Please model this.
Amino acid sequence: MNPDRNGNKSKRPKISNGVKVLGIAGSPRIGGNSEVLLDSALAGAESAGAKTEKIVLSKLKITPCDSDSACRKNGRCYIKDDMQLIYKKLAAADAIIISSPVYFGSVTAQLKAMIDRCQVFWVENFIFKKKPSKKQKGLFLCVSSHDNKSYFKNSHLIIDLLFKVMRVKFIGSVYAANLELKGDILLRKALLKKTFNKGKQLIINR
Model:
């Protein structure tokens, strides 16, 4: 412990090594504003000793859920595509950070397709009554070209439901309004710093 200005001893923030953080970029625009925001949060997590990995959904093949309900039999999705790898990464992560721009008042089609395929987690947790193997945390980053709060609320509700299904503790969101052109986020230094700190706080004192 280090003494503060008054001579009192204060605890240093605990830095967690080996914590796995999975970042999921939901935008179809590579390197867009929401992905830059995600990179900032991941950098914050890394500064606290976390091991980070980013998945860009637009680069992957994710077939929409077909409501076959086969997952109810064994808790696994029968569709063989890149979701099989995502399932493993989601389960292995200690923290999950999801980013998305607002499209028609909601998250992107790429992200929604992934979320719909997470029905397997609902089956595992609420039908097969699987006990959580770890305590996971979640953070949501959302960008919009408008400042309509209902758009952010709609997107938040979808992510909140996903985290509830996965039994991930939703620790908060960062909303970034009035960002239209690619690269606009780079002019919002305070917002990037806020997101960096959110990523850092996701790891400290777990």
Notes: DSSP finds seven helices and seven strands in the chain.
